Amino acid sequence: MALLCLSSRPASAWGDEGHEVIGLIAEHYLQPAVRVRVLELLRHDDTGLVERDIAHEATWADKFRDSDRDTSKRRYLATRDWHFVDLEIDHMDVTRACYGRQPLPAGVPASAGPAEDCIIDKLDQFYIELKNPKTPEAERCLALQFLLHLVGDLHQPLHASDDHDQGGNRKLAAGPGIGSNNLHHDWDTEFVARLGANDTDIARVIIARISDTDRARWSSGTPLDWALETYAVSKKYAYGPLPASRDSQYQLSQAYVDDATAVTAEQLSKAGVRLAVMLNRALE
Q: Can you give the pTM of this predicted structure?
């Protein structure tokens, strides 16, 4: 348990399964020509970290970040902060959480930008690169790979909020059918796993439940808007209903687990729809 409390901040939001679900939802809503263009760009991925389809590439940024985590740490240290924004529950300050919101230095591609940057600004930077046909193909591929992943990260409640606990990594929790782990892990994987047997089944069920009204409602806004929305979700459902801790551990109620599972389904839905919107607009 002590090791869990000390785990590093950038856990893999949603885990592979959640990101693959988001990729499958987004792929469903891509314009046919955009889907072809996305797959063309992904052929530039020569890292060998994932299969070069949309669902698996949605996990690429985590695997790229962690590929040298136990060795040189160059990729790890250069990109780890791009996966979240620490909007504190007791005092939200976007500018502070985004390291002053400094613009990307002139002439520097987004993939080589400063390590101290937040998910909100990285999404804006990578979107601009992907949309610009003058961006070199290799950089457009990287922009696409990061967008496929970071849009999902932004919708994981504990990647857009913080309670001075490394986004839930320092809070131990257990609940009905859920063993003892940190709260961040529960939102990454446990609540996703309750939605279905695998990513394909979960995506199919979620897509069937997304109405035209939902898509219209979720298709507007910016990464900053979505971050603030996810922050509000976190305050209401991730942190707000937590019981008092006992021996430094939180015992989640059945109601908490059920609500969190429903919220997870909606957050995956929003992320998939919004990822498709971004790609359709950038590559139409």
A: 0.95
